[in-house]
Every structure is written in structure tokens, then in C-alpha cells.
Amino acid sequence: MKVGRRFFALRLNYRKRRSHGHRPVVYTAALIVLVSILALAGCGDISLGALLEKQVPGELGIIPQTATISPGSTIEISGTGGFPQYTFSATYGSIAEIDGVTYYTATAASDEITVVDALSNAATAVIQVESPTNPFSFPEAMTIAVGESTGYVQAAEGTPPYTFELVGDGSLLPHPITPDSRVKYVAPADVPTVLPILVHATDNTGQVSTLEITVVAASGS
User: Fold this and answer.
1) Residue ranges per structural domain of the chain
2) Banded model confidence at residue 181, pLDDT cuts 50, 70, 90
3) CATH code of domain 61-129
4) What pLDDT is attached to residue 43?
5) What number does CATH give the domain 141-216?
6) Strand-pair partners of 197
7) Could you identify which of 73, 84, 205, 218 might form a hypothetical disulfide with 69, taking C-beta atoms 3.0 to 4.6 angstroms apart as the criterion?
8) 150 contacts 184 by C-beta, under 8 angstroms
């Protein structure tokens, strides 16, 4: 009977040791399952190695964190820290991705860019937009009502001919007799009244003067 009890005790102890020896395999399998779940949730850049080594990503941010640029300018932006993939948005300006590089283009208003990572964390950057300056004669600022026009405005004192570009909603109409020096902006009935409209006049030497148009609600509306 004593020999039988000792044999039973040794066998039970062997089973305990054997089961304990498999625990790291169980933990590793659990981590693999966790990584698979994160990958299915869109967090594929979180590696098993990072989890095993307990790596913590840096604070989410945007490069550049602040910038001062001129109206209509385009700069490259990128995310840092957090959990890629990154999604960018801007309050006023536009975001475009070309060949894997993300670009931001400014309007006439100072702006805020937001980046969101794969775990929905968010960070922001501030873009200051300089006030336009005119190297040659062109109206600097005008205010019109929704649905109205500026009338024909004149570019002068630069080197003609001039080309005109509109930044914002609406349409540009060249002067029927002097199309290379005068242009008229027409605001549509549904134009937003939040952002200023820009008309760039470029002379033959590449200098640019900018007319900033503020569109306000029509009287009585």
C-alpha cells in the first residue's frame, strides 16, 4: 500500500510540473490572439514584439506642430507617436495624400489640423496664415453681400499681362475689353460666409497681389 501511495504521489507531482511548464505557451498564445484582434480592428502596426517587450508608443503629434505660411501655400505634414495609421483633417484648409506623402493647403484663414491614430487618439497643430501683401496695385480688401459682385477691379503698376486665380467659391469674369488687367468676382447665392474669398493677380514677372473678399449675408435675410 505504501509503494502504491508513493507512486500515485510521484505521478501527481509530475503532472503538476508538466502543466506548469506549459504556462508560457498559454500566455504567448493569448498574446497572439490579442494581436490578431487588434489587427482586425485596424491596429495592424502593433506588433507582437512590441507587446512582449512592453514598448509604449510616444505621444501622438503632428509635424510641424506650428507653422506660419501665406494664403494658398502647401506644406508637407506627418504624424508622430501614437498608433499608425493616421487620419488628418483641417477646419478650413484641404488635406491631400500624394504618393504616400500628406500635404496641407491653406486658405486665407488661420487653421487647425487634427490627426487621429488607429486607437482614435487625437492631436492638433496650429497653422497661422499671413495677411496677404500686394507688391503691385490691386485692391487689398472688399466686402460684398451674398449673390453680389465686386464689379471690375484693376491690376496696375506691375508688369502686364496679368493672370487671375480664384481661391474659394464663386466665379471670375474677365473684362470684355481689357481681360488681361481687370476682373470681376461674383458670389453665388449659397456661398459660405465663414471664410474670406481670395483673388490672386499674378503679373508677368511672377509677383502676386491678392484681393481678400469678405462675403456677408444679404440685407434682410
Assistant:
1) 2-52, 61-129, 141-216
2) very high
3) 2.60.40.10
4) 55
5) 2.60.40.10
6) 213
7) 73
8) yes
Dig out the grid coordinates for 190 from the structure.
449659397
| 172, three cell numbers | 471670375
pLDDT of residue 11: 46
The SS3 call for residue 109 is coil
Q: What confidence tens digit (pLDDT) does each residue in 40-72 have? A: 555 555 555 555 454 567 899 999 999 998 877
List, as one string, the DSSP characters of 130-154.
Answer: PPP--SSB---EEEEETT-EEEEEE
Contact 167, 129 (CB under 8 A): no
CB 137 within 8 A of CB 153: no
Question: φ and ψ at 70, to 5 degrees?
Answer: -90, 160
Count Cα atoms within 13 angstroms, Cβ side, for 101.
6
Confirm whether 61-129 and 141-216 share one CATH topology. Answer: yes
